[in-house]
Amino acid sequence: MDKNKVFEEFYLTIKAVLKASESILEIYRSDFDKMIKTDGSPVTIADLTSSKIINDILKETQIPVLGEEKVKEPYIVRKHWEKMWCVDPLDGTKEFIKKNGEFVINIALIENNKPVYGIIASPVHQKIILGGKEFGAYHISYENALFPEKWEKLPVLSEKIETVYMISSRSHFSGNLKNLSDTLEDKYGPVKSIVMGSALKFFDLVMGDAHIYPRFAPTMEWDIAAGQAIFEAVGGKVIEVETGNPLTYNKEDLENPYFIGVNPSISLSLEFYH
Known about the structure:
Layout: H1 3-28, E1 34-36, E2 42-44, H2 45-58, E3 65-67, H3 75-78, E4 83-91, H4 93-98, E5 104-111, E6 114-122, E7 127-132, E8 136-141, E9 152-154, E10 164-169, H5 176-188, E11 191-196, H6 201-206, E12 212-215, H7 221-233, E13 237-240, E14 259-262
Parallel strand pairs: 3-4, 10-11
Antiparallel strand pairs: 1-2, 4-5, 5-6, 6-7, 7-8, 8-9, 12-14, 13-14
Helix pairs in contact: 1-2
């Protein structure tokens, strides 16, 4: 599938992230209030505004939407969905509130419980990554988003790694990270650490600037689905630490199991976790 075909097929998702980004940045540059949801997590008017914009645009596809800030259909309804959009309209709300720029918009297309397409957009950096196994991955500036002939095709990740860079969350830490780091150091030598919020981490993974992303703290399906689709498009894997299997979606419980995103050049035993 060439760039023009990808653009035609997923134009609405590109339109959605560009339009949502405008509203998010306008709010980001203002004084805004934060609210606390029933689960204890923060939410802002930017989350809600972005959600409405994206949902309104994706309605044109007639594919159901599962989103963080959207009323969730019960599993008895969802389990019959062969296709769905999985949307986080503002991933990294804590970072948005801190105004450190480490937040993104995530949209993934799920087919039969697998992510087949993803787009992640960074409003602050004005950058997009998108991709899927069937057509590869692309790095795109906002100004070129509507001009597929200017998109940068990303190579499959196959180069030998000299130094392993492990990227982890700015807002969550687990003792399992040390066990994993020790395991990697035994095999590959000293491991360097990168700390970053939100699915912005997938920019580094997909472009080969980071090689492994462990997550031993709660995430939801909309946090990771887009990143998994894009990372798989360049040869990466996002696997459950308990089973070694790829993450799946549209589950009855929408919380992800603990997982690791790993570059194909890294051979990883999961025994460190057990």
